Every structure is written in structure tokens, then in C-alpha cells.
Amino acid sequence: MYRPVALLLRRSRWPATRATQFCATHPVRRWYSDDGAQPVELAPGAAQSTTAATLESNPNGPSRKFTPKKIQNNLSLSNLKAQIAEDQAWKTQTDFDSIDEWNKENARLAFKGAIKEAGVHYAQVRLPCTKKTQETCRDMSVYYHQLRDACTCPLCVDPKTKQRNFRLSDIPERIMPRRMRWLDDSHIDEEKILEIQWATDVPGYDSSHVTRFSADEIGYPASYFFKKETQNRKQTLWNKSDMDEAQHWVTYNDYMENEDKFHETLNALSQYGLIFIKDIPDSRQMAEQLATRLGPLRNSFYGQTWDVRNDPKAKNVAYTNQNLGFHMDLLYMTDPPGYQLLHCLKNSCNGGESLFVDAYSAARDLDPSSWSVLSHSELPYHYNHEDHYYRTTRPVIEVAQQANIRRNKSIKHINYSPPFQGPFEVDQEQGKKWARDASRLINALKKFTKNIEEPSRIFELKLNPGECVIFENRRVLHARRAFDTTSGERWLAGAYVDGSDVNSKLFTTKRKAGVFNESQREADDSAL
């Protein structure tokens, strides 16, 4: 039996009638309606086919005329309902002698899965019990366009390249199943299979083409877990005392070779945005090896990897021995790197301690007015040198486009890098308003800076040779104390990795470990 790969959904493309479900802590957009709410049905093609007769042609008043398309749709729907009834041999309560027998039949249908109702655009299905639901049946409305779009059979998706062989625009506007049923004798990992044969299909596909999904591929597609582990991931806000206890250290060998330890390290990095590696061999090449364990190196005009050490001709304050205040890297670029690595090769001089602050925690503790100003006002960032010029603008608090959730849960990124802040461009017609807004912005920035620099928030340590820190660039602010080059040498090797690559590694590592095969009932029930 052919097993389709995990169903991928496309967000915000499908009917959204009461379609928001929540996992344990964050909202998850689904493509079905759990409560079976019925969407309002309009006559297919009504805008084109409905006409009002004139008084001269119809003295009794306007009338409606059915087009062949509507008649065809009605016939297709009638045929589909008849086929579903025949496949399931549905019975009503009146067909049973007792309520107990009727309840047993309902329980049987719940275990098997059932098509409860079919419409022109959707069908309401009862998903059978699976390992993930732990014998908890679920009623959902599924939509024909998405079912067809998500088909991963060998005709639709090349098994080797995983590339689609059709376009979304190829799907008929009025697509509808010819037959839709749960297969009793077909399983994927002991799950029932929903099979759809199409009455109308993509040009070039004949009646032999079928689309098949397991129950969990419908209820829990791969995209559900990816969003849960990335956009809606568990994040623990921390201060100095928290990180003193929770700091995660892993040896170089475990990080590179032990999948279980690497899995734990990724979880800690996702949760706290900061982890440490020790016992690293003494080699300049280690920065690249450590970074590529997470994903491809992110290149920049600094190079794929770079050195942080005192340079008399430095074009960046980081390459001096001066104090370096809290900041984030490369915010002047359109897409700043998601993660940064700093591998310590030498650190024998006095000073040079590394400092870290959870910017999410500092932002959470702002008053509502300052939060509003910093999430709506954009600061300019630029890099202005002879051979390079970059510029962009960003709000200090970049919020996710989600409503009705707590402030600290809506943070997407923090953007804060005073060393590379650029000059404002002021619209002369809006100059007075800008001046008033600038005053509020400066006041809000002062409060945010005060939060950042509170000693109780700052986690500080001096990296030793053979140690590396990895941190989330747009969550964890980093800084460095000045150091004395006459007393020794300080040399760190650095690298960047994009956030999307780390998210991919986090997801695939968990999937290979079987994390997503566990029951999802507890997570879903806690959100109801």
C-alpha cells in the first residue's frame, strides 16, 4: 500500500470558520473546523448564473434561472452522498431496538472513521482513533481544494525530487470528489486511510487517480509540528540567577556524535536561546565544524567565519580591546542571521568577560506605553563604509501577527544594536509629529536600556580556550568587557547560521527521534 508523505498545509488559504485551535501554549492555525460548524453555502457560480427577469418578460416578478454548471454540481453532490451512504451503510437510531445498540454503532463508526456530511466545497469527517489521539475521535470539516492540493501520490509529487508535478492554478475551481471513503483494509502504521476519487481533477489526470491520507496526516500534518516547534515553541524567559542554574553545557564529542545529547542541546537552545560547548579541540577550523552541525554557514562581508581579536586597523569596535555594549549583529541587513557562535581559542588577558541578557524578558517587563512605542516605532540601522553600505529600519520589539495572546508570547524578534543605529529620515510635512514621537521613543528606549542593564539580568562568564557559546542573535543580547592586551591575548573565532536552518535541524532531529509519534490529546485538550 502506498504511503503518502506528511500532509503540508498552506496557512490562511482555506475557509476559516472557527478554525483556530490551540496547542498547550500557543495558537495553531488548522485547516478544518473541529466543532463541525457549517459554512454558509452559496449557490456555485451564483454571481454568474443568477439573473433577474425584466417586468416585460416576467410580469410576475424576477425569477432565478439555474445554469448547467449548478445542475451539474447538484448532481455530483447527490451522487457523492449516495456513494458515501452505500459505502458506510449508515443507519439511524430507529433502526436499532435499544439505545445501547445505537451507542455501540456510534462507537464503531468513531473507531473506523466516517464521512458524516458532504457539501459542495467540504465534507465533515469523523477521524478514527490513532496513537496520537489515544482513542479520542474528532469531527472535522475538510476542504476539497486543500485535499487535492496536498496530494503526494507519485503522480502528483516526484518520489525522488519531492517536487510537485502540478500547479495550484491547475486545480478546477469546482473540484469535487466522486467517491470518498475510509478504507477498512488499508493501514499506515495501524491508521485508517481516507481515499478520495475525484469527479473533476487536474487536466491530464484520469479517473484512476486517487488521493490518500492517514487520519494523523489530516489531523496532525508535519506543518502542525513544525509550527509548534518553531513559531509556537516553548521559551523560558530568564535572568542571571535562572541562567546560573539552567546553563546548558555539552562536550564537543557529544555535540558532534551523540544524537541524544545533540537533541537535548537543541531543545535548550530553542528554550533559552543560549548554550555552551566545552572540550573543543584547539583548532581554528572548529568554529566551522560546530556551526555546520546546525546548518550551512551564513556568509557576509566578514567571511564565512571571522576572528574577534584586537586589530589596530579595526573597522568594527568588536575588533578592538574596548568595552562593547549590549547589541545584536547585522541588524542593518535585510535578513539578519538567526544564531551566532563564538569559539574561544585564547583568553589569557585581564578582562574580556562575555555578558548575555534575555531581551525577551527585558521587553516583557516594560510598561504598556513603552511596549506600544517600541513595537510601533522603527529605528534605522546602517553600515556605512567605503566598500559597503547597508541600511534598513526595524521596530525594537517585532511582534508576531497574532492576536489575543499575551505580550511576551507575541514577540517575534528583538532588534537592538546602538553601535549600528543610523540617522533618521524625517518627512518635512510630518516633522512636528515626528519630533513628538521621537520624544516618546527616546523615553521608551531609556526604560528598555535600564531593564537590559539591570545587574540581576546579566549572565556573565569568561570563556576559556576550548569553549564555545551559541546564542540566538535576535533574542539574546551580547556584550563584552574591555580587556588588557598587555597582559595576554584574547582570540575568538565566530560564525553565523540562519534561523531557518536551525529550525529545520530542530524539527528533523525531533522527527527522527520519534517525538511527534506521541499522543497529542493532552496538548489539544489543555487548549480547549
UniProtKB/TrEMBL annotation:
The keyword ATP-binding does not apply. Pfam families: TauD. SUPFAM superfamilies: Clavaminate synthase-like. Residues 250-496 form the TauD/TfdA-like domain. One of its GO terms (biological process) is carnitine biosynthetic process. Residues 47-61 have a biased composition (Polar residues). Its cofactor is Fe(2+). One of its GO terms (cellular component) is mitochondrion. Keywords: Dioxygenase, Iron, Metal-binding, Oxidoreductase. Residues 45-68 are annotated as: Disordered. One of its GO terms (molecular function) is metal ion binding. Belongs to the gamma-BBH/TMLD family. This is TauD/TfdA-like domain-containing protein. It comes from Talaromyces rugulosus.
